[in-house]
């Protein structure tokens, strides 16, 4: 069970309207925690220091020990270890992170780099690591971040033809820089998603590795793997129940709205609609692996045009690349020869770069 699920159950317990029932539920929770804490404390004494130090290094076990105030390491030791972990990641980017002070429940850090960085992105990544190691602290302050001029974010709703050259005749790679550290980025390059604003930002490989594809960070890395799902199960009846008017679409979950969204291309740009949750659950029952699809950054890409039955587990930026091609090359109601040529080339390229076969 995840920490988020536990927090949700606690909130539900606290919202019980009957005071007596709420009191019983809270007492039961506290008694269970006290019982687990006593058992854990006894286990730690039996295990000995060497074993305790080894298991405390595990992220999940460490969180449990912190919950019961049984972690063998002091607050300063845990914070210094977290700062060291962050410094290892930042050192190859030419940046340094140091601990200035721990004052009451405030951790003061200093960030040093000759490059400019996005304060929001740096702060988000550092705070997540520090709070994970020391959840009892109140705040983290970071001095020394040199910020760039306002970045040119790419809204998902406007993403189109990422691999196309600019009208000036110069390639995008000559213009584009990493939105976090300002290093030049080539083609192809990686992207991060900002789920709340539904935006993509362009980043270099070094900055991309600082962010996971899931979790609660402000930015999430868009995966690069593409899988051709050869044994995907979707009957014509199930497809028709989705009420998508065109045989090209991609489906993904938005974490900000907690909805499954269906996006399909049109000459006017991507059209978005909330997917019926019952229909989605039916698809999940037939294809259980869909439950593993990461929100915001991965999508089920569907091609059922002209008799095709092609399904891909695809990065979200590849999906919006398709909508961009449709918007740029589609002509009239039928699409035109050039439009369909571009769509066929897109799916041919997708197949060449994908893992073929059944989903694993």
Q: Provide the residue-averaged pLDDT.
A: 80
Please report which band the strand proportion falls in: under 5%, 5-15%, 15-25%, 25-35%, 35-45% or over 45%. 15-25%
Largest sheet: 6 strands, antiparallel
- SS summary, helix count: 12
Q: Helix/strand-derived class? A: alpha+beta
Rg result: 24 Å
Task: Please give the order of strands in the largest beta sheet.
Answer: 8-13-12-9-10-11
Series of H and E elements: HHHHHEEHEEHEEHEEHEEEHEEHH
Rounded to the nearest angstrom, the distance between the terminal CA atoms is: 23 Å
Give the overall shape: globular
The overall strand count is 13
What are the segments in which pLDDT stays under 50 over at least 5 consecutive residues?
Answer: 149-154, 157-174
Explain this structure:
The chain is an alpha+beta fold. Helices cover 40% and strands 19% of the residues. The chain is built from twelve helices and 13 strands. The protein has a six-stranded antiparallel β-sheet with strand order 8-13-12-9-10-11. It has a four-stranded antiparallel β-sheet with strand order 4-6-5-7. The protein has a three-stranded mixed β-sheet with strand order 1-2-3. A hairpin with a 6-residue loop joins strand 12 and strand 13. Helix 11 packs antiparallel against helix 12. The radius of gyration is 24 Å and the shape is globular. It starts with a helix and ends in an 8-residue tail after the last helix.
